[in-house]
């Protein structure tokens, strides 16, 4: 009334007769039509409703805007329009009464309101709802006091006075009829509406108690729960409240619990009423026992007990083990029995658990979730009855989709699960989306307790497998919801449920069939949570894990080679269902005891596929731990890593395990610049890689059979995970940086070992890839040679190692293409094939030469042509030489003739193999001839004619620096290749290439080369030196060999003539022998320097190189004596200090002594010039010292020709670094002393010589004393000279000990005079390009 009109206006009341009345009637009737059931109910966000229209109508009458007599007929008619209309009018009148009595400005309209109330024909309703003061004021009640008294009496009688209804034992007719009506057969004619009318009639006719009637309806529902839809519909219409029903059901539960009766039907009734929202869960939950707090305490108590059991597993007992085990078994059995009894009683007496069971049975899933949220996770489902009922609910829900996608053969009839006959239960799943929305949440709530129903696990896995196979990957790599939701199901339910079972390998295989659809990244994440988190969250899983570890310890204490069979069965049983903890313990034992590797690997033969995959994860997990990988003060790799690496190689080879995880781990470590873990990769490669035909036949016939399958598995893992080329490139990059970025101040021994490991693994891995991966696959993945050199920052040796197979493939393809273009392809002669091959080389290599030219300095190409650089790096050993003796050896081994012990099939195989080897040898010979023809054509442009500004030895330096040295230490085969390549350059008579200068630069001073090598590089460098020494000594062995292979060769030119009419000068045979002797001396000097350095790396490398070249060096007795003395010194110094050096030295010493009788004296090695006659010593001075100095000064004026005339020998050929000449000269600092053969002397001569020596010593001492007295003022100068002499003595220590050991012994015997130091006369012959000497 206080508000303005919204539905009508003042014009409506003014024009009442004309249009106003019709407008009001139309509005009210429209409202009744829109909502005939609840016409007076106001609706939100709706301005027009019946209550508002009536309010504005009556308000207009009270305000006086509309005359009461005009509106009275309408009000009278309106009461007949709807049964509730009178009630609505009274309700509005009540509101107007409140407004007029409380608002001052409206109080003047109260009389109008009283008159209106009198005019309404609804006295009964008005008396019920209006206040007593209003009724008295309006004259509706004559006496307010009497009316109030009467009202109190009626209410007391109605609400507080208990009436005596007829009970069942007193009068049965009404209840009998009621029971008959409630329990009759339910047909279409029998509906809740019809029965509720009957019930009302019976209550009214027999004056029945409504609460007792409600109780009978509940008992009828309890006895006939299958008709729950009828009874719940009936209760929806019966006037009762949820609190009343909860009181009745709570009273029944208490009665049943006290009397011990079964209350299963009552719980079912509760569940049905809760599901139908007739009974509120909060109302009935208050009646249930026990309290939530006590249930939570029981859970925490069980959790603490499980943790205590897990703690005791790691406690070592010192008591009698046998008695302790018996006691433990008895305790376990007692606890198990107590648990079973306790659980049975607990579940039966726990009303809340019983209600949860009933809720799940009727399909009230949401209400069960509501209860479960009151407790810790998985507490309710830890009760077996609850989890079993939930499994049955999931069975009923998944049945349609399971029958749809997992059909069984017609002869097999699976168990059909009946669907729930309840529209309020979860809807059955017909699509995979339904499975995600309905079944997956149930499985997550069920968790590890899904183990109670293994059949359900199979159903879920089979449905999921079909769904996952149909999952499509979007353009952005994302899959649908099912793909990711099922990962949560695996994590929360399926895998933990597997752990709860005792031993079920079939279920483990079924899980693997579904799980393997996911990549290893998802699988490993699941395994990590399963092993480290899930098993520690549930008390039951904690107990299972503790028992498993006990059994694991028991088994691992008994594993040996003899007990593999029984132990393997035990390990298989323990790992079928919970492999993670078992493998973790086994791997810890393997790290501690490497002798367990073999037995443990053999005992894994009974594992499931899932267990193998978990084993791969456990290996990666342990490797990922932050453990120290370096031991012994950064001098060696930790033993645990070595043991684990060996275990990896053995287990990955023997069993089918996904390699993706371990390969990605190695790649990640390489990205982090940690090359130590390459040890794992190397062990895997050693175990899983195979070889080529010739190498296979040269080795064991079993080799390929053992590695073929594992090799294929490794290849597939590399390609599937796209790790083949990235791993190779990471190894190459790590090889270059391992020296600088490995660890802080590591020992050089460890750095060298890591470098060798990186190098060897890279070569082995690259060789493996080139064997098993097709060239097309490599070509698609491998960067170009230019990108390798620039973008990937890889050295030339590695870049060409990677690109060489592609170049060879390109060349062969082009050669085959050119051959096919000829009509008579099969009739081509060898010369024609050579031409085609040369043509193919030109077409293929010209673009490659252009691509590599910018990546090197321009100065490099001034010394050599890029085509030579490419030729050197693209050729291999098989291009230069055919191993004829190896082919012949293997062919001789094969005996295809059948025998009694040889089957015909085997004989045929051997015959075919023999033919293959012969054909392969033939093809190889043709190929070598083609390569040599190509090299013969290209050799003229390899080295440019040197100008005066650039000496010839720069060409050799560039060749050694960019080609020879990097490749000779790359692999052992490359070392041999380098030696053969130098010989090939010589044999081809390559212009502008000096063989002598090349060999001299190799042998000149190898000290720094030896000192900078790692252990494996030292081995390879020794192979290279051995190959070159074999060539050198072959020419040295006989004059015939030298004349045939060296004389008149450009590599041995000593004088280049500008005029073509004059012939060049060459080194003759005897001068060459002098040169070879000088090279042997240089090698000896360098190696002895390393042996005397005291540095571990230099001593080790020197001995390794000596061992590697022992077939050709030392070849001279006096050099061997010098080396032997240094080796003995190393043995003495390093014994009990650095035992590995002692072992090396001792090994070489034995080998050196074995070859000592075969060595030749220096006089046989080359012609030794005669020494000048020793000067006589008189009074401690040399008589002919002045003459000697005069002769020396005189001899300086002699020409080189006069020197040659005197001696005729050339001792050494070296390259002058200041001009383009080739000098034949000796280093003036080098001193050589000839070991003289001394005949036996008489005792008298020896005595005279010794007396003379003693006299000389006395005279020398006197002279020194006199000089000290006279020259005191020059003391500082003499001290300086003394220091210089000490330095010189150290520098010449090698020469003195090298050649003078025997002479010192002879001097002491008086054979050689003290002042008679012998040395070679140094002759130098200069050969200039202009022909001058």
UniProtKB/TrEMBL annotation:
Residues 571-645 form the THO complex subunitTHOC2 N-terminal domain. Residues 861-1152 form the THO complex subunitTHOC2 C-terminal domain. Residues 298-330, 1200-1209, 1222-1282 have a biased composition (Basic and acidic residues). The keyword Nucleus applies. One of its GO terms (molecular function) is mRNA binding. It is found in: Nucleus. Belongs to the THOC2 family. Component of the THO subcomplex, which is composed of THOC1, THOC2, THOC3, THOC5, THOC6 and THOC7. The THO subcomplex interacts with DDX39B to form the THO-DDX39B complex which multimerizes into a 28-subunit tetrameric assembly. Component of the transcription/export (TREX) complex at least composed of ALYREF/THOC4, DDX39B, SARNP/CIP29, CHTOP and the THO subcomplex; in the complex interacts with THOC1, THOC3, THOC5, THOC7 and DDX39B. TREX seems to have a dynamic structure involving ATP-dependent remodeling. Interacts with POLDIP3 and ZC3H11A. This is THO complex subunit 2. It comes from Homarus americanus (American lobster). The gene is Thoc2-L.
């Amino acid at each position: 009334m206080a508000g303005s009109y919204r539905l009508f206006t003042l014009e409506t009341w003014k024009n009442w007769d004309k249009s106003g009345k019709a407008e009001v009637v139309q509005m009210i009737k429209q409202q009744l039509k829109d909502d005939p059931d609840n016409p007076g109910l106001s609706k939100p966000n709706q301005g027009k409703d019946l209550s508002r229209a009536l309010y504005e109508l009556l308000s207009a009458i009270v305000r006086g805007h509309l005359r009461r007599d005009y509106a009275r007929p309408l009000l009278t008619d309106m009461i007949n329009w709807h049964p509730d209309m009178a009630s609505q009018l009274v309700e509005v009148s009540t509101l107007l009464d409140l407004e007029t009595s409380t608002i001052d400005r409206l109080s003047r309209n109260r009389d109008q309101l009283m008159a209106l109330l009198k005019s309404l024909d609804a006295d009964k309703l008005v008396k019920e709802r209006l206040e007593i003061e209003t009724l008295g004021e309006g004259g509706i009640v004559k006496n307010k006091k009497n009316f109030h008294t009467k009202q109190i009496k009626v209410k007391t009688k109605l609400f507080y006075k208990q009436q005596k209804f007829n009970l069942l034992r007193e009068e049965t007719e009404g209840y009998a009829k009621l029971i008959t009506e409630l329990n009759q057969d339910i047909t279409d004619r029998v509906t809740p509406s019809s029965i509720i009318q009957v019930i009302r009639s019976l209550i009214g006719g027999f004056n029945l108690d409504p609460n007792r009637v409600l109780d009978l309806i509940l008992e009828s529902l309890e006895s006939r729960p299958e008709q729950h839809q009828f009874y719940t519909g009936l209760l929806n219409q019966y006037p009762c409240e949820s609190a009343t029903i909860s009181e009745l059901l709570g009273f029944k539960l208490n009665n049943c619990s006290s009397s011990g009766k079964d209350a299963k039907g009552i719980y079912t009734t509760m569940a049905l009423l809760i599901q139908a929202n007739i009974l509120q869960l909060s109302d009935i939950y208050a009646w249930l026992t026990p309290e939530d707090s006590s249930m939570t305490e029981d859970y925490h108590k069980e959790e603490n007990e499980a943790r205590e059991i897990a703690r005791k597993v790691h406690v070592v007992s010192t008591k009698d083990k046998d008695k302790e085990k018996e006691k433990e078994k008895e305790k376990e059995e007692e606890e198990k029995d107590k648990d079973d009894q306790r659980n049975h009683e607990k579940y039966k007496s726990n009303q809340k658990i019983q209600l949860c069971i009933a809720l799940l049975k009727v399909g009230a899933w949401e209400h069960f979730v509501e209860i479960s949220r009151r407790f810790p996770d998985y507490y309710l489902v830890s009760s077996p009855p609850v989890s079993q009922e939930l499994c049955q609910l999931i069975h009923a829900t998944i049945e349609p989709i399971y029958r749809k996608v997992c059909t069984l053969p017609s002869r097999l009839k699976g168990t059909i699960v009946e669907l729930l006959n309840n529209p309020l239960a979860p809807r059955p799943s017909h699509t995979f989306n339904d499975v995600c929305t309905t079944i997956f949440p149930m499985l997550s709530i069920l968790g590890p307790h899904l183990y109670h129903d293994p059949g359900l696990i199979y159903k879920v896995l089979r449905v999921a497998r079909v769904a996952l196979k149909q999952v499509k990957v979007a353009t952005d790599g994302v899959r649908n919801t099912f793909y990711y939701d099922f990962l949560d199901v695996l994590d929360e339910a399926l895998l933990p449920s597997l752990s709860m079972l005792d031993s079920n390998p079939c279920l483990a295989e079924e899980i693997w069939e579904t799980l393997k659809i996911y990549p290893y990244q998802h699988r490993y994440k699941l395994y990590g949570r399963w092993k480290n988190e899930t098993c520690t969250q549930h008390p039951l899983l904690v107990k299972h894990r503790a028992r498993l570890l006990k059994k694991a310890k028991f088994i691992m204490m008994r594993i040996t080679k003899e007990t593999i069979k029984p132990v393997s069965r035990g390990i298989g049983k323990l790992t079928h269902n919970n492999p993670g903890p078992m493998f973790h313990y086994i791997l810890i034992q393997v790290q501690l005891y490497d002798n367990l590797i073999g037995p443990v690997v053999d005992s894994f033969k009974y594992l499931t596929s899932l267990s193998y995959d978990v084993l791969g994860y456990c290996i990666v997990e342990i490797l990922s731990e932050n453990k120290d990988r370096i031991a012994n003060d950064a001098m060696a790799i930790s033993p645990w890593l070595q043991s684990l690496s060996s275990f990896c190689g053995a287990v990955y080879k023997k069993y089918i395990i996904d390699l993706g995880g371990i390969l990605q781990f190695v790649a990640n470590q390489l990205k982090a610049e940690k090359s130590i873990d390459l040890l794992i990769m190397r062990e895997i490669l050693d175990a899983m890689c195979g070889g080529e035909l010739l190498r296979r036949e040269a080795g064991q016939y079993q080799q390929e059979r053992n590695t073929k399958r594992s090799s294929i598995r490794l290849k597939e893992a590399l390609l599937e995970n796209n790790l083949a080329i990235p791993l190779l490139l990471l190894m190459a990059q790590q090889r270059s940086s391992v020296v600088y970025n490995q660890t802080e101040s590591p020992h050089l021994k460890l750095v060298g070992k890591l470098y060798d490991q990186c190098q060897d693994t890279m070569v082995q891995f690259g060789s493996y890839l080139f064997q098993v991966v097709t060239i097309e696959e490599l070509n698609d993945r491998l960067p170009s040679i230019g990108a390798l050199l620039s973008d990937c920052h890889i050295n030339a040796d590695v870049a060409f190692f990677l690109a060489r197979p592609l170049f060879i493939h390109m060349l062969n393809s082009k050669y085959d293409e050119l051959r096919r273009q000829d009509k008579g392809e099969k009739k081509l002669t060898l010369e024609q094939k050579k031409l085609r091959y040369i043509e193919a080389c030109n077409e293929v290599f010209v673009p490659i030469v252009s691509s590599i030219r910018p990546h090197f300095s321009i100065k490099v190409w001034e010394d050599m042509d890029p085509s030579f650089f490419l030729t050197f790096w693209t050729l291999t050993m098989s291009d230069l030489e055919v191993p004829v003796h190896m082919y012949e050896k293997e062919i001789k081994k094969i005996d295809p003739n059948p025998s009694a012990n040889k089957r015909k099939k085997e004989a045929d195989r051997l015959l075919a193999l023999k033919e293959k080897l012969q054909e392969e040898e033939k093809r190889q010979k043709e190929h070598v001839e083609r390569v040599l023809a190509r090299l013969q054509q290209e050799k003229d442009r390899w080295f440019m004619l040197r100008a005066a500004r650039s000496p010839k030895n720069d060409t050799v330096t560039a060749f050694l620096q960019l080609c020879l040295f990097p490749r000779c230490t790359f692999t052992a085969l490359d070392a041999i290749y380098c030696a053969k390549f130098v010989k090939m350059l010589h044999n081809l008579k390559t212009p502008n290439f000096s063989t002598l200068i090349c060999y001299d630069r190799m042998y000149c001073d190898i000290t720094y080369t030896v000192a900078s090598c790692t252990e494996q590089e030292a081995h390879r460098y020794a192979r290279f030196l051995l190959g070159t020494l074999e060539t050198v000594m072959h020419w040295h062995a006989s004059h015939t060999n030298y004349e045939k292979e060296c004389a008149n060769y450009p590599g041995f030119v000593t004088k280049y003539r500008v005029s073509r009419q004059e012939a060049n000068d060459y080194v003759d045979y005897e001068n060459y022998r002098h040169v070879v002797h000088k090279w042997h001396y240089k090698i000896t000097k360098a190696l002895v320097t390393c042996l005397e350095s005291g540095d571990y790396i230099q001593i080790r490398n020197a001995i390794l190189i000596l061992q590697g070249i022992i077939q050709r060096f030392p070849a001279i007795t006096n050099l061997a004596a010098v080396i032997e003395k240094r080796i003995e010194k190393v043995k003495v110094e390093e014994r009990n200090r650095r035992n590995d050096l002692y072992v090396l030295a001792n090994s070489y010493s034995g080998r050196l002594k074995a070859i000592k009788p075969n060595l030749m004296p220096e006089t046989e090695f080359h012609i030794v010039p005669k020494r000048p006659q020793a000067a006589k010593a008189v009074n401690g001075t040399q008589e002919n010292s002045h003459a000697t100095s005069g002769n020396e000064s005189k001899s300086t004026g002699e020409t080189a020709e006069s020197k040659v005339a005197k001696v005729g020998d050339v001792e050494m050929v070296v390259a002058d670094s200041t001009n383009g000449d080739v000098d034949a000269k000796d280093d003036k600092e080098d001193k050589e002393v000839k070991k003289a053969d001394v005949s036996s002397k008489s005792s008298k001569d020896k005595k005279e010589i010794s007396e003379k020596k003693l006299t000389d010593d006395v005279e020398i001492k006197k002279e020194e004393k006199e000089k000290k007295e006279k020259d005191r003022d020059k003391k500082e100068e003499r001290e300086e000279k003394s220091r210089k002499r000490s330095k010189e003595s150290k520098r010449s220590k090698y020469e003195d000990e090298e050649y003078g050991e025997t002479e010192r012994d002879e001097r002491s015997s008086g054979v050689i005079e003290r002042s008679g130091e012998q040395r070679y006369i140094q002759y130098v012959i200069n050969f200039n390009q202009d022909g001058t000497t």
